[in-house]
Amino acid sequence: MKYYIKAWCSLCVLISLLVSCNEDHNLVPTGTLYLNVEEDQTLQTRATSEVTYESLQVAILQGEEDTLKVYNDYLTEVKGQRLVLPVGKYTVAVRSNGADGVAWETPLYQGAEEVEVKQGEITNTKVICTIANTKVSVKYGDSVKDHFIDYQTTVSNTSGSLLFTRDEYRSGYFTPEKLTVQLKLVNNDGNEFILKRVYPDIQPQYHYTFKFTLSDNGEDDEAGADVNVTVDKEHKEITYDIFIKEEDELFGKGEPKMTLEGDFNADNLISFRKKEGVNLPEAALKLSVPNGIQTIQVKTSSWQFEDLSTFDLNTWANAEAKGFPSIDVKQIEQTLDFKLLIERLLPDGLKTATHKFTICVLDNLYQESEISFSIEVKPDVKVGIGTPIVWAKFAVLVGESEALEDVSFYFKKKGESEFETISGDAITTNIEKSQFTTLISNLEPGETYEYKALADGSETDWEEIVMEEAPMGKNMGFENWCEKDGLPMPWADGETPFWGCGNTNVNLGITTIKAIMTKSDNTDYKEGKLAAYMMSKTQSGVKFGAGNIFTGDFELSGTNGVLKLGRDFTGRPSQLTGFYKYLPGTEIKKGEGSHLNGEATDLCSIYIALTDNKITIDTGKPVYFDPSDEAIIAYGELPLEKCREQKEYTDFTIDLEYRDLNRTPKYIIIVASSSKYGDYFEGRENSQMWLDGLKLIYPNSLSEIKQAK
């Protein structure tokens, strides 16, 4: 039986109207919503399982997509139930549970339909759910298996990554966007080699197969690889046959190379004042692409390119009109001169404008290289405004002037008439950059403020800044719990989960056991009425596991756990604080690793990361959390000396160390475990941990932010 990507489910929505009265006997028109799944037997040949048996989430949205109600399990919470709604217009949105980002053999089904509840009428509607992501498989030819003792491929994009080991036969599902494929080979001598390819044109509902085979015509392949592409549009299948050379010295050769030339500083920045009669700076990009250019993509962050933030330099007809040089895709060596571009870049009125560019070259062997640079254009005025630094509770205002002896700022909340004058010792000047700055603290997250810069008897117009939000996370005190499939879960009934845990029902064939290692504790807590309680133990002799709680989702693969870490989050806190208590076990050491290094007792763990990708931990591979992952923007963990026994509740503070102050996170990961090395099935039986009162602390100045060295 052959499985294709396309699948759908139908949700029949039957709406009948009832009229109920409130306590004042005023008529309040309401409707009763019935949802039912319409089974389609043809799905058996189009998907790995019928959509009607998927775990579906149903959301009732009202107005501007405001969520009125969320049901996490269609079968148990919605099917056959009467959902009473006031008369009005709604959107019924349906999607798979636990299928965000990347997943093994778990496609994301989703669909939505608008429906109007009318008094005295019955309305029928249907929600069509289709697969919204991309299927990926990896195969290895016999020649690879014969010549290498180990081989594995990591497939990744911004949603996460999956590791396809030599014995991995499952397929993965990804969000439909550019895929990076990295092959690691180990030859008979134990030498390791990496082959990396990038595939930008990835479409939803297609099945992509990457097959690696040793090349039998390597003499003509100077880059060490070649690619054949087979497209079956009828079945929506695309196969990339990637031929690799056995000669290890060829790996990594022939990749595109880019070098900036001209007046760029160490941060790839050119800064100048747009002034008549002053020579413009020089800027150029030297390209070396031995295998020919397939695409050369330009991404911009600039007010002059708001209409087109991404384009292919080779195919965009207006590229030269905007000042970009022409490109010859067949030429191996060439230099792109940005002289005309610099001439046409402008300040933003009386403000300094920073024009950011990222150029990404993909060659004909699917090898990619990327470089970023910025061009800062200052206006020809006595005083101007530079780019401010804005976080949730503080801002650094930047003024620009060649005269720095008498400078100041006006500052106020938007809409207010009175303003504060900031001058004197509150101002820091930088003669080299012709800038003056001031720090303003204790501002309100999400608020809008206005300011002016004054220098040399002149002043700017009022300029706005909008403070970042300071989200605190949900259920940080672990007061909300529910029961799902007979298991305690750290969220309230009907609530979209923020926290997850490893509790699960394990099917052993002849019996099913409830693996409960995390639950609430109403007898031993620090704040409120409940705390999270975790215990490490072996479940019915099956496998050792650590009690844990984390921001993300958990699924079972056989008897192994797969953690999908990360919840939507755009804040930039500087610390995580809270309270914990830890009683390590001393019984028989579990697992085959040696991470405890002879410790007499177990160790606990708490860590936090801000990322722009979700991260998957698969204990069956194993794939572990790596604090050096490129997706991590900021990271912090409980110091080792504090991971030991704490007989009473102890407060802790974890500093987040930022690796980049310019990247805004998309996800937050917080993990606590009663066995620090539980991912490796290593720890001590009956280690116990309590966690309560978590808080995120937001900084009031740059000095409160730790930066990676």
Lay out the secondary structure.
Elements lengths: L7 E14 L5 E12 L17 E7 L3 E6 L2 H5 L4 E4 L1 E9 L6 E2 L4 E9 L5 E9 L2 E7 L1 H6 E10 L2 E5 L7 E3 L4 E9 L4 E8 L7 E8 L10 E8 L4 E8 L12 E6 L6 E5 L9 E6 L4 E9 L8 E3 L20 E5 L1 H6 L8 E11 L4 E11 L5 E2 L3 E2 L4 E6 L6 E7 L6 E3 L5 E3 L4 E6 L7 E8 L2 E2 L3 E4 L15 E3 L2 E3 L9 E2 L3 E4 L4 E4 L2 E4 L9 E5 L1 E2 L5 E2 L2 E10 L2 E6 L1 E2 L6 E9 L5 E2 L14 E7 L3 E4 L13 E6 L8 E10 L1 E2 L8 E7 L9 E2 L3 E10 L8 E2 L2
Parallel strand pairs: 10-16, 16-18, 20-26, 55-59
Antiparallel strand pairs: 1-2, 1-9, 2-5, 3-4, 3-6, 6-8, 7-13, 8-9, 10-13, 11-12, 11-14, 14-15, 17-18, 19-21, 21-24, 22-23, 22-25, 25-26, 27-29, 28-29, 29-33, 30-31, 30-34, 32-33, 34-35, 34-36, 37-38, 39-46, 40-41, 42-43, 43-58, 44-45, 46-47, 46-56, 47-52, 48-56, 49-54, 49-58, 50-57, 51-53, ...
Summary keywords:
10-stranded mixed beta sheet, mainly beta, 5 domains, 709 residues, 49% strand, 59 strands, 8-stranded antiparallel beta sheet, Immunoglobulin-like
Task: Summarize, please.
By secondary structure, this protein is mostly beta strands.
Detailed description of the structure:
- This protein is mainly beta and 709 residues long.
- It folds into five domains: 8-131, Immunoglobulin-like; 134-250; 261-365, no CATH class; 384-466, Immunoglobulin-like, CATH 2.60.40; 482-707, Sandwich (Jelly Rolls).
- 2% of the residues lie in helices and 49% in strands.
- It has three helices and 59 strands.
- Strands 39, 46, 47, 48, 51, 52, 53, 55, 56 and 59 form a ten-stranded mixed sheet that branches. It has an eight-stranded antiparallel sheet with strand order 4-3-6-8-9-1-2-5. A six-stranded mixed sheet has the order 7-13-10-16-18-17.
- The longest helix has 6 residues, at 142-147.
- It is globular.
- The two termini are 55 Å apart.
- The relative contact order is 0.08.
- The model is unreliable at 1-26, 37-53 and 218-225 (pLDDT under 50).
